[in-house]
Amino acid sequence: MKTKVGIVGYGNLGRGVEKVLQYHDDLELVGIFTRRDPDSLDTASRAYHMDALEKKTNDIDVLILCGGSATDIPETAHMYAKNFSTVDCYDNHRDMPNHFKRMNEAATGGENVSIIGTGWDPGVFSVQKLYSEALLPNGESYTFWGPGLSQGHSDAVRRLDGVKLAAQYTMPSSEMIKEIEDGRDVSYDKFSSHHRVVYVVLEEGADADIVRESIITMPDYFEPYETEVHFISESEYNKNHTQLRHGGHVIRRGYTGDNTHTYKTTLDLDSNPEFTASVAVACARAAKRFMDARQFGAKSIFDIPPMYLLNESRESLIERLL
Amino acid sequence: MKTKVGIVGYGNLGRGVEKVLQYHDDLELVGIFTRRDPDSLDTASRAYHMDALEKKTNDIDVLILCGGSATDIPETAHMYAKNFSTVDCYDNHRDMPNHFKRMNEAATGGENVSIIGTGWDPGVFSVQKLYSEALLPNGESYTFWGPGLSQGHSDAVRRLDGVKLAAQYTMPSSEMIKEIEDGRDVSYDKFSSHHRVVYVVLEEGADADIVRESIITMPDYFEPYETEVHFISESEYNKNHTQLRHGGHVIRRGYTGDNTHTYKTTLDLDSNPEFTASVAVACARAAKRFMDARQFGAKSIFDIPPMYLLNESRESLIERLL
């Protein structure tokens, strides 16, 4: 029997999940749930108003929560987790421990499973950091993002008063990456290794200085990164800033005595939301496995036995991939 | 309380495990068990004859089996698994399903845990193939090995008349890797994706042309690979070719509609046995976690929740790495 998946929210991420589900034969899309008029969605899938969700608890195995991280997920995710198993792509790293607590309480109470913080960062990058630290405990880790558009950061800017459209680019220090690859010492920290560039289309009559100040002082998202803000026209935005490309590197350099070992993971993604959606969809399968094992509560990618992510038996995986 | 680890066998891998254990505060080396005279081992650790092992079942949590894959592991590993939880680095991919069955029967019967096929290939490469397939189900995977020293090929060259010393390196095709990353079509197969480079120290008076011809025409080992042969001095050999360097790349190129995503893992290892040992040691910690959860039987890296590999709480991992 197929695992029945629902999508909550139909922005870039929700559309990505809908698209990616076609590549998973064992997963079935039950419907898209939206706060908008469901008939207004440009989709061939079944769409429902959010209010229909409460009658669907028996028809859905896993809800993939595709709302934004700025407000949607922290304010609403735990309410869904009471009645449904969920997967989310919450990306506020600093709030993750609180999010885990909220979701764990709700999911445990409802005998559901909530897999939090899926995607590639958090998600793939997080688990690669864990593996490389575990396998090379004596060493240093480096993470580089981009160049690429950050959905979470663009979304946070878009929610500010006076902002009509926004695109935020994370730019890695290519000099520092080369220094690490050459085996040199670097003074790496999260902030010195990257800067942020934001392109903003203002609402008519909005004050550019106020918007700029609101952006560069936004805690966690921008402060204390070096941030450039550029104000552009809507036509320039549409011409140059609608690509959703992203990626980056997780690098661990570790030592056993005098020997150096490098473990590096690189993602190069044409579409950030579609790859994020891909990870969420594989995690929906894992959520169903945890449900079947009655291991309720909140989980992260750190808890997921990798084989839970594929629809294939242990024997076949050993024969084919080990 | 520390997890108590025993080492069976004291070749390159056993010495690697002994060295790596110093980087894991929660693991403790109980002793090295050998078929040789234990006093003959060049080690500061406690060494015992293998016969002492039967009296140590209560003193050891996990045995790391460091015997060779040609005969030691397939012939003896299941006997240890009856009385001890084990980790092995068995690397005969084709025999892995049989090895799993043998180990699963023995470990389940003895209420032990046996983690099989750890290291980097099988091991890290295997789990990276699994993740990248799960996250990009619509795509193709490519594996490249090296630059790395192949002991078997070096030995084959060393047996030729006129050869005093030899080091054979497997080299991945960097052109093909770039073609994959650039999104171009490639005709990947075992032979076109790699070439071989041999460094030879000749015996006095040996004919270089004859030796070169004997190498490049050696069936299976070299023919039909593209092979380069370099003749060097003994001092250059000792300076540059006694390292057990290895590594490689696992690359998955996947598609969501028209969008292409690349997931690449690269290992660059100064010492093949020491990194292999590092993976085995982290898996010994995981074996203890499975034991504590009374989840007996054989496991592979596909079964291991990543957080089992680190000595850190879920809460701390979420805060620090998610």
From TrEMBL, chains A, B:
Annotated catalysed reactions: meso-2,6-diaminopimelate + NADP(+) + H2O = (S)-2-amino-6-oxoheptanedioate + NH4(+) + NADPH + H(+)
Enzyme class label: oxidoreductase
Stored InterPro entries: Diaminopimelate_DH_Ddh (IPR010190), Meso-DAP_DH_C (IPR032094), NAD(P)-bd_dom_sf (IPR036291)
Domain Meso-diaminopimelate D-dehydrogenase C-terminal, residue spans: 119-271
Gene3D superfamilies to which the protein is assigned, alphabetical: Dihydrodipicolinate Reductase, domain 2 (3.30.360.10), NAD(P)-binding Rossmann-like Domain (3.40.50.720)
Pathway: Amino-acid biosynthesis; L-lysine biosynthesis via DAP pathway; DL-2,6-diaminopimelate from (S)-tetrahydrodipicolinate: step 1/1
GO terms under biological process: diaminopimelate biosynthetic process; lysine biosynthetic process via diaminopimelate
Keyword vocabulary terms for this entry: Amino-acid biosynthesis, Diaminopimelate biosynthesis, Lysine biosynthesis, NADP, Nucleotide-binding, Oxidoreductase
Record has Oxidoreductase as a keyword: yes
Residues that coordinate or bind NADP(+): 10-13, 34-36, 66-69, 118-122
Residues holding substrate: W145, T170, R196, H246, N272
Assigned EC number: 1.4.1.16
GO molecular function per UniProt: diaminopimelate dehydrogenase activity; nucleotide binding
Pfam families: DAPDH_C
NCBIfam families (alphabetical): DAP-DH
Subunit description: Homodimer.
Family, similarity comment: Belongs to the diaminopimelate dehydrogenase family.
The protein's name: Meso-diaminopimelate D-dehydrogenase
